[in-house]
Specification:
Elements (H helix, E strand, L loop, with lengths): L6 E5 L3 H12 L3 E5 L6 H5 L2 E3 L6 H10 L2 E4 L6 H7 L9 H7 L2 H10 L7 E4 L2 H6 L7 E5 L9 E4 L2 H10 L5 E5 L5 E9 L5 E3 L3 E6 L2 E7 L4 H19 L3 E10 L2 E8 L8 H5 L4 H10 L11 E8 L16 H4 L4 E5 L10 E9 L2 H15 L1
Parallel strand pairs: 1-2, 1-4, 2-3
Antiparallel strand pairs: 5-8, 6-7, 6-8, 9-10, 9-11, 9-13, 11-12, 12-15, 13-14, 15-17, 16-17
Helix pairs in contact: 1-11, 4-5
The structure holds adenosine-5'-diphosphate and magnesium ion (MG).
Magnesium ion binds next to loops.
């Protein structure tokens, strides 16, 4: 077991890393963050922020020398970086698990090989692949295999010509082409798994997206016990097959009453923010515990919760002028907890913060959260 006051290493300095840092601090640990952005939200509160690229080996040597173990909050850290660090200190999740989750081709192949339910797709590495595919895949979404997030690197395409055009726009990078599914709803399961294989799954969340970005998560998900159980079992199987250690997020589509795995995130997940305020143990606490070899906490929710993301557009008034939103409107709501990430600049579409409303009555919680969202704009 790695015990306080040991120093933990975090690759990536976004909001997920920031919650990890503050949680680890509460638990008595120190944290070093490695992120190239000097303004990164986690770097601002870390005990040390190494402002360096993820493949800067001088910085990685320094990092490995000062940390007892390393984890990540960002799936695009090169797997080679995780492999390199693992020569010196424990790294969780492993490079091999992250490598599967950071490449849509590897991810879909993993799902297919392990008999996990997924939607129809084709791997597109060159124009020829697009000419050869089954026309029944259209309408479809072309997604670059690497570095996509929040709907970026994705194009909705009605037919082969549009797909060819989008493929060129993406610079001919390897992609997956997914059949556009008519979604009943989307759910996610966030879980933690320790080195001995113990898994604790948080209650499934129901996710609503706007423009490809997560907007609202409702927990517990209102999809009935059968789909909830199937989602949980699939997520736990994925974690087992990956030999995963740490906090993992698995996104699902529900389409025609069937469950399909959409994608996996090898880190805490945006839809797991509610665990801070509504669960016995948060997803960040579990990440610390799994990393340090401590027994995982109980994942039970003590409250129903609705989480609402606050995106950068809130910082612009009707005339397009930049201003701070009027937080007093949210602070006036009982059982609402506001979390702001201290990001340097609000850009439209950028995740700047979120709030979570908790309570015993799920319908009332949703109503309160929607009113609060309408009030803030
Ligand atoms: P990201 O890495 O940006 O989260 P996703 O693949 O999860 O990428 O896509 C973002 C959102 O776009 C999904 O949560 C879903 O709402 C929508 N979407 C993605 N793929 C499909 C699909 N094949 N059919 C229908 N909707 C989709
Ligand atoms: Mg997603």
């Amino acid at each position: 077991m790695i015990l306080p006051p040991a120093t933990l290493g975090m690759l990536g300095g976004g909001q997920l890393g920031r919650f990890f840092v503050s949680t680890a601090h509460e638990m008595g640990y120190k944290v070093w963050v490695l992120d190239p952005d000097p303004h990164s939200p986690a770097g601002l509160i870390a005990d040390r922020h190494l402002v360096a690229a993820y493949d800067d080996y001088t910085a990685l040597d320094d990092f490995a020398g000062g940390c007892a173990a390393v984890t990540t909050e960002f799936e695009n850290v090169p797997a080679t970086t995780l492999d390199y660090l693992a020569k010196f200190i424990p790294v969780h999740p492993s490079a091999s698990a992250v490598a599967v989750c950071q490449n849509r081709i590897a991810e879909k192949t993993f799902l297919a090989e392990n008999g996990l339910p997924h939607g129809p797709f084709a791997v597109i590495r060159c124009e020829e692949n697009l000419r050869d595919i089954d026309g029944a895949l259209f309408p479809a979404i072309l997604k670059v295999a690497r570095f996509g997030y929040d709907g970026k690197g994705q194009a909705r395409v009605a037919n082969r010509d549009e797909a060819l055009h989008a493929f060129h726009q993406f610079g001919g990078e390897s992609c997956v082409l997914e059949k556009m599914l008519s979604l009943d709803s989307e759910v996610s399961v966030v879980l933690a798994r320790d080195e001995s294989g113990v898994v604790r799954s948080f209650p499934a969340g129901e996710n609503r997206h706007r423009h490809g970005i997560l907007d609202v998560t409702i927990t517990p998900a209102r999809v009935g016990p059968v789909l909830t159980k199937l989602a949980r079992e699939a997520a736990e199987r994925i974690a087992g097959q990956l030999g995963y250690v740490g906090t993992l997020g698995v996104e699902f589509f529900i389409c025609g009453g069937q469950l399909y795995v959409n994608e996996m995130a090898p880190r805490p997940h945006n839809s797991g923010h509610h665990t801070i305020d509504a669960c016995v143990t948060s997803q960040y606490e579990q990440q610390v515990k799994a990393l340090c070899g401590l027994p995982l906490g109980e994942a039970r929710a003590h409250s129903a919760a609705v989480m609402v993301n606050l995106l950068g557009e809130l910082w612009y008034d009707e005339a397009g002028d930049y201003r701070e939103p009027d937080w007093s409107l949210l602070q006036a709501v009982p059982n609402l907890r506001l979390h702001l990430y201290a990001k340097h600049h609000a850009r439209p579409g950028r995740k700047m913060g979120h709030f979570t409303v908790i309570g015993d009555d799920a319908a009332k919680v949703l109503d309160t959260a929607m009113h609060a969202r309408a009030a803030i704009g």
